[in-house]
């Protein structure tokens, strides 16, 4: 099968079923699956192969059901970005609007941050929950953000960790099947996908992002999940922070009615889509955010998972400030450069067994379009291990541009639906 994909062939349905089952059981070795993934990344898969690969991943585990809840369900999934903390304010916001949110989330993948890694910086908070606990919390609080249980698409859990460290993340068949196997097995009624495009996304062009969006919407629709996708810009990182605890703090700012404008815009846009896909007509999410109700749901959600929403968040032992080399307008801030810097500071992992640092990451003090003054702070780097500063600084080199007297034209955040 490795040779067939390497040489541009197609796998049969039974070959795919066997491969996923055998890998999940440990019969196919990690290095063999890594080679097959690389062949898939390089040579692609047909629509039939993607649908079958997804079905085999769903069949590797159990399927959940939220039919016993008194409210409709909607989930959201991002294909991965830098500074993408949107799930944190979004899940409680949508729950406060009357839709239950079973948000199964992941850990960091490559240079992109993971929702669970961020939330684990909250003292006491735990990511793993049984299906019964998840259902009970959906009934009482209305929102859960947790790790997919052991039994849900176990093939994806192994594959995700393997792809993260073998350069095989950026393949449309592998991303689409990874995301959709979890979402279909989870049993959500509606699903809103945030497909990222640009320097800091796995998809670099609008064409490839649109193809990924279309592939996932088709997989969801065929499985009876009301699925829609937004294609959103990830050439610039979201908000003003990339890391773990520092992104939690920024999310809490949004829930408190503040926070960066782009984070608020995307949170509200995705909330509107989730509520409408779930078939609920209620108050506008922007008003609910302003009312403080979403903050109440956030606190209840963190408490229910053992976290202390009032506890101070961890901070890194060391910081390093990068100042602006000249005066002018910040015309470019590259999401990949920032994501790599945060990752190298310890916000992400280099090997799948590594732990992340809760306090690590990057804060930027200006966004594209802002004026900056020579010598004023442009970035603050955070880490517990200062020997990492040099590599993070190298990642940021060439990752931004300051132009004197330049007219800056802002690009839209939401590019397509
Ligand atoms: N998110 C996932 O769950 N899987 C991927 O492959 C990429 C992003």
Word description of this protein:
With 417 residues, this protein is an alpha/beta fold. The protein is 43% helix and 16% strand. The chain has helices at residues 2-6, 13-24, 30-43, 47-59, 87-96, 115-119, 131-140, 154-164, 172-186, 206-222, 245-255, 261-277, 285-291, 293-304, 335-347, 389-396, and strands at 74-78, 101-105, 143-147, 190-197, 226-233, 241-243, 318-323, 328-333, 361-364, 371-372, 377-383, 400-403, 414-416. It has a 4-stranded mixed sheet, with helices on both faces. A 4-stranded antiparallel sheet has the order 6-9-11-7, with helices on both faces. 55% of the residues are buried. It binds uracil. Pfam families: Glycos_trans_3N, Glycos_transf_3, PYNP_C. InterPro entries: Glycosyl_Trfase_fam3, Glycosyl_Trfase_fam3_N_dom, Glycosyl_Trfase_fam3_N_dom_sf, Nuc_phospho_transferase, PYNP-like_C_sf, PYNP_C, Pyrmidine_PPas_bac/euk, Pyrmidine_PPase_CS.
């Amino acid at each position: 099968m490795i040779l067939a994909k390497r040489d541009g062939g197609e796998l049969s349905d039974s070959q795919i079923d066997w491969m996923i089952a055998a890998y999940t059981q440990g019969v196919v070795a990690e290095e063999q699956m890594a080679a097959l993934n690389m062949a898939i990344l390089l040579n692609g898969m047909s629509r039939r192969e993607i649908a079958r690969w997804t079905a085999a991943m769903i069949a590797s585990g159990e399927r959940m059901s939220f039919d016993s809840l008194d409210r409709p369900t909607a989930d959201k999934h991002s294909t991965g970005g830098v500074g993408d903390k949107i799930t944190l304010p979004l899940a409680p916001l949508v729950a406060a609007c009357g839709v239950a949110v079973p948000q199964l989330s992941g850990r960091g993948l490559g240079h992109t941050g993971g929702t669970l890694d961020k939330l684990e910086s909250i003292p006491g908070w735990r990511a793993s929950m049984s299906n019964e606990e998840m259902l009970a919390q959906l009934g009482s609080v209305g929102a859960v953000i947790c790790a997919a249980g052991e039994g849900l698409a176990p093939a994806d859990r192994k594959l995700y960790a393997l792809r993260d460290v073998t350069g095989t993340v950026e393949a449309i068949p592998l991303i689409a099947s990874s995301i959709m196997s979890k979402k279909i097995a989870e049993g959500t009624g509606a699903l809103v996908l945030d497909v990222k495009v640009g320097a800091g996304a796995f998809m670099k062009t609008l064409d490839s992002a649109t193809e990924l969006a279309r592939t996932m919407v088709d997989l969801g629709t065929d499985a009876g999940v009301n699925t829609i996708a937004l294609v959103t810009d990830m050439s610039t990182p979201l908000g003003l922070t990339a890391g773990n605890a520092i992104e939690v703090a920024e999310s809490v700012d949004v829930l408190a009615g503040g926070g960066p404008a782009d984070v608020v815009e995307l949170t509200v846009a995705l909330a509107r889509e989730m509520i409408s896909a779930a078939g609920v007509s209620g108050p506008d999410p922007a008003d609910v955010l302003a009312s403080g109700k979403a903050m109440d749901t956030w606190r209840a959600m963190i408490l229910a998972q053992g976290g202390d929403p009032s506890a101070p968040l961890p901070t890194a032992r060391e910081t390093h400030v990068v100042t602006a080399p000249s005066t002018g307008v910040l015309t470019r801030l590259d999401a990949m450069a920032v994501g790599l810097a945060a990752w190298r500071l310890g916000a992400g992992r280099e090997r799948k067994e590594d732990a992340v640092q809760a306090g690590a990451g990057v804060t930027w003090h200006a966004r594209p379009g802002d004026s900056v003054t020579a010598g004023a702070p442009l970035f603050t780097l955070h880490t517990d291990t200062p020997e990492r500063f040099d590599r993070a600084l190298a990642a940021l080199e060439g990752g931004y541009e300051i132009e004197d007297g330049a007219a800056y034209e802002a690009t839209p955040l939401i590019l397509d639906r």
